[in-house]
């Protein structure tokens, strides 16, 4: 498979890469570049070179997962490039080929799929109050833990319709709407992509010594959710 040719099939790549002249304005404006070992100028240069080996390394790297997709780069590029869109195409191809499992940040795609992805197609929300388990989110502190333990009463007091029928924040989404959401994911390839993320992640879990259990590799999910090698931030 020619990786560059695969990238050119993604409209985001076509729209994102016009003619990079390596000026570095995108890197200067990029919030992620300030904190991570990340340089959108270099990424644009690599894909523009059409070097298959370097593109493969990029697809397996931590680098493509640092972008926050704020699109600051789009507003400043004098040539009309958008590195953020190039990153979208690279991430998509990495997931399609299973290369995302080769990096720590890439492996976290499984956690995102199982929390955000499955919430959307089963509940109609990205994140739900019941997802904010204190043990998994220590940054929420004691107040967050108290809210989690008393969520029904808390959300009722602030006027939310938590898991209720009818209107209001956090309401239960009607089944008709949920069926439509699922159909959208199915037609656009989202369900197929979820299945590939699961498939490649399970292969990687086995390779790393994790075993499948009743919780469907819950130990592996916990591992990728909490592990940080400490090498991501700019020194």
Automatic annotation (TrEMBL):
<dbReference type="GO" id="GO:0005886">
    <property type="term" value="C:plasma membrane"/>
</dbReference>
<dbReference type="InterPro" id="IPR051460">
    <property type="entry name" value="HdrC_iron-sulfur_subunit"/>
</dbReference>
<keyword id="KW-0560">Oxidoreductase</keyword>
<keyword id="KW-0479">Metal-binding</keyword>
<keyword id="KW-0411">Iron-sulfur</keyword>
<dbReference type="GO" id="GO:0016491">
    <property type="term" value="F:oxidoreductase activity"/>
</dbReference>
<dbReference type="GO" id="GO:0046872">
    <property type="term" value="F:metal ion binding"/>
</dbReference>
<keyword id="KW-0408">Iron</keyword>
<protein>
    <submittedName>
        <fullName>CoB--CoM heterodisulfide reductase subunit C</fullName>
    </submittedName>
</protein>
<dbReference type="Pfam" id="PF13183">
    <property type="entry name" value="Fer4_8"/>
</dbReference>
<dbReference type="InterPro" id="IPR017900">
    <property type="entry name" value="4Fe4S_Fe_S_CS"/>
</dbReference>
<dbReference type="InterPro" id="IPR009051">
    <property type="entry name" value="Helical_ferredxn"/>
</dbReference>
<dbReference type="InterPro" id="IPR017896">
    <property type="entry name" value="4Fe4S_Fe-S-bd"/>
</dbReference>
<keyword id="KW-0004">4Fe-4S</keyword>
<feature type="domain" description="4Fe-4S ferredoxin-type">
    <location>
        <begin position="9"/>
        <end position="41"/>
    </location>
</feature>
<dbReference type="GO" id="GO:0051539">
    <property type="term" value="F:4 iron, 4 sulfur cluster binding"/>
</dbReference>
């Amino acid at each position: 498979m020619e990786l560059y040719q695969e990238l050119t099939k993604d409209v985001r790549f076509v729209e994102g890469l016009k003619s990079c002249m390596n000026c570095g304005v995108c890197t200067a404006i990029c919030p992620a570049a300030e904190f991570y070992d990340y340089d959108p100028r270099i990424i644009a240069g690599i894909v523009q070179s059409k070097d298959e080996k370097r593109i493969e390394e990029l697809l397996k790297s931590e680098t493509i997962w640092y972008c926050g997709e704020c699109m600051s780069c789009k507003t400043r590029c004098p040539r009309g490039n958008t590195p953020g869109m190039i990153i979208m195409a690279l991430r998509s191809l990495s997931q399609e080929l299973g290369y995302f499992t080769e990096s720590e940040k890439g492996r976290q795609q499984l956690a995102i799929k199982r929390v955000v992805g499955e919430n959307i197609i089963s509940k109609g929300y990205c994140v739900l109050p019941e997802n904010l388990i204190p043990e998994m989110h220590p940054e929420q502190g004691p107040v967050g833990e108290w809210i989690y333990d008393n969520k029904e009463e808390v959300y009722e007091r602030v006027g939310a319709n938590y898991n209720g029928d009818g209107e209001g924040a956090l309401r239960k989404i009607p089944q008709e709407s949920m069926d439509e959401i699922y159909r959208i994911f199915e037609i656009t390839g989202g369900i197929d992509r979820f299945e590939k993320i699961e498939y490649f992640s399970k292969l990687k879990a086995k390779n790393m010594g994790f075993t499948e259990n009743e919780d469907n590799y819950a130990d592996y999910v916990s591992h990728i959710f909490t592990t940080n090698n400490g090498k991501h931030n700019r020194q």
